[in-house]
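Propose amino acids for all 373 sites.
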């Protein structure tokens, strides 16, 4: 804040703040007046204390920490509330290379990855959070942020600053980011220059919040589709993480809690599971042994045409059939099913089924649809 005080050369005597002169300057509604000995301040205060303050009127700002006010966090499911694929992922002594919690890819050898409740005795261990992602012996996970336009820096403009923050009960041994072709298959990865470990910025009980600011100092290549964060912990200790945020600017702001319905919808752009009960049913109205067709609408337009697995009476890769009363009808033989002749899209999945040996009145199925990076 600059104050434009009167020129001392205009005072009497010249070039002095004499008791006979009362120079003053006004800025942002506050007037500073010389009384011959000291400056006095009058008017309503028009400044904000750096340590915090309370506004009594409207505050208009073009941005916050170099970014928008809401939807700052580029991480979807950073608080690990959404687990459509299940809650436990066991490597059975091998290596886990698969998505676990929604949008989070596990890459760990000989360890189990699970949904971890961080509520103990009805009390949240970490205020504001209920779940985390846990690995038994070292947590190695990746997260890919879709580029608005593949092969470009998109929302991550060259030379812009971005800050990662997260809560963890153990430090990682490496946390780095770059543009990649995907998350499971990193492909032609272009990593950013800052390879320093995140620094601790606050603690709460057994939890520490870490932060790392990076500059987007590379350009995406022609095959890159996402900006990927790699979290690596080679220490053989139990490790849980939550509250992950990646936002514009050089400062880690408090975690952005979005409504769970919004978070679920964001997740379903990449993966959708509806296999409980009989989620999709088609009734033909008459007994039939010919092909019957149905279409399953997806709750959100997906990132790309998804790969689909149907679920039915026999579990995965099957469908179920309906009798005259609309109840489940077990058909012992002569059954076929397939994705429909019309192409799947990002919004609906066509399905066809046939019972060639037993007349049926319809069929039912569930499905998973995967359009992850």
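Proposal:
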């Amino acid at each position: 804040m600059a104050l434009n005080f009167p020129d001392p050369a205009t005072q009497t005597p010249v070039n002095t703040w004499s008791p006979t002169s009362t120079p003053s300057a006004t800025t942002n509604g506050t007037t500073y007046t010389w009384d011959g000995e000291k400056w006095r301040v009058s008017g309503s205060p028009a400044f904000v204390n750096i340590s915090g303050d309370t506004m009594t009127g409207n505050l208009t700002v073009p941005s916050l920490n170099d970014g928008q006010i809401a939807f700052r966090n580029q991480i979807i499911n950073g608080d690990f509330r959404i687990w459509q694929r299940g809650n436990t992922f066991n490597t059975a002594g091998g290596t886990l290379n698969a998505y676990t919690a929604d949008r989070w890819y596990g890459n760990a050898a000989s360890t189990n990855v699970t949904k971890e409740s961080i509520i103990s005795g009805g009390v949240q261990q970490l205020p504001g959070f209920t779940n985390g992602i846990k690995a038994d012996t070292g947590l190695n996970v990746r997260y890919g942020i879709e580029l608005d336009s593949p092969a470009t820096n998109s929302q991550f403009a060259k030379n812009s600053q971005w800050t990662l923050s997260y809560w963890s009960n153990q430090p990682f041994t490496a946390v780095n980011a770059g543009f990649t072709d995907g998350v499971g298959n990193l492909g032609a990865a272009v990593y950013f220059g800052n390879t320093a470990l995140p620094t601790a910025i606050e603690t709460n009980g057994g939890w520490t919040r870490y932060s790392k600011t990076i500059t987007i100092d590379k350009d995406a290549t022609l095959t890159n589709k996402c900006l990927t964060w790699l979290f690596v912990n080679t220490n053989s200790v139990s490790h849980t993480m939550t509250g992950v945020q990646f936002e514009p600017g050089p400062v880690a702001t408090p975690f952005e809690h979005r409504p769970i319905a919004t978070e679920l919808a964001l997740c379903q752009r990449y993966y959708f599971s509806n296999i409980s009960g009989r989620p999709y049913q088609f009734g033909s109205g008459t007994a039939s042994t010919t092909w019957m067709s149905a279409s399953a609408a997806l709750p959100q337009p997906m990132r790309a045409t998804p790969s689909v697995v149907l679920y039915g009476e026999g579990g995965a890769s099957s469908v179920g059939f309906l009798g005259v009363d609309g109840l489940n009808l077990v058909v012992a033989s002569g059954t076929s099913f397939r994705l429909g002749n019309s192409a799947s899209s990002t919004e609906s999945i066509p399905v066809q089924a046939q019972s060639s040996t037993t007349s049926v009145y319809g069929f039912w199925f569930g499905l998973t649809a995967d359009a992850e990076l």
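Helices lie at 260-267. The CA atoms of residues 294 and 351 lie 5 Å apart.
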